[in-house]
Amino acid sequence: MASSFSYISQPLKHEHILNEFQAITGLNIDDAIHFLDLYNWKLDNIINDYYDGIKLKHNSDENSSLGTFYSNDDCTQQQNVDSDRHYAELLHLYGDADEWTRQQQQQQQQQQQHQQQQQHKSSQEFIKDTPIYHEKQRLMKCGLHSLNNLFQIPKLFTSHHLEMIVRDFDKRNFFNDYRTLWLGNYDLRVLIEAINRCGFDVRQLNIYHGESIYHLPWDSYFGLLINLNGTHWFTIKNHNGIYHNLDSTLRKPIQIGGKERLIQYLINLIQKTRTVYLFVVSQQMNGKEKFLF
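Now predict its structure.
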């Protein structure tokens, strides 16, 4: 092969040598310059080795930019076998990396579950240790106090808030017959609107039309709103599994007991009171927008 290039006797410029070498080998410019540098730009020598396949194969690993142009299939297969053997040895010594990852993920999940359980336990203990809130009567604002006792937040609602609801009703041309301003005895519609704005629904139990109170999901309710004889409002609230009467006229809350005691308490209340209106409050499930004022 060398004789076929004997005409290249005089020194050529690097550019001409590079072009000639690229035309023969098809290498890109970076790889071509790399090999020419190895052969001190002696085109005859590098072309001989290129066709003989002696040093180019050996030197191909020295340039990280080279692809698989010079890789021999047999050599590649041997490398694959060596890699597989190496991986098998690692697997034998250290185990499956995927299995280790799965174990790590399981441990992390268990730790997260444990932390969540501890947080829930701490939250439950905090709730258990927190006394129930009881807002007492001031003037004749039993409806207002029943709302704050229902949500267990002091001054969540004020007279100003409820008057804003009244004015909203006025703007909608409702009859102005649902509150006595100087007394603060707000009508049911005002209380329901206030509860709705917190993201809760109110439903009346039709106890005088045959609806039974024995099999209702009492523990799922947020609270009970009760009106006696159309004049007085008060709240019954579940706190740590115990129902409490939070009537704002009481000096302190009255513990009723569990669900069975609650049912019996309501039956006695209905029997001894001329008219009892029972309303259950539940969190909305229909995604309504929540707003206050």
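The chain has ten helices and eight strands.
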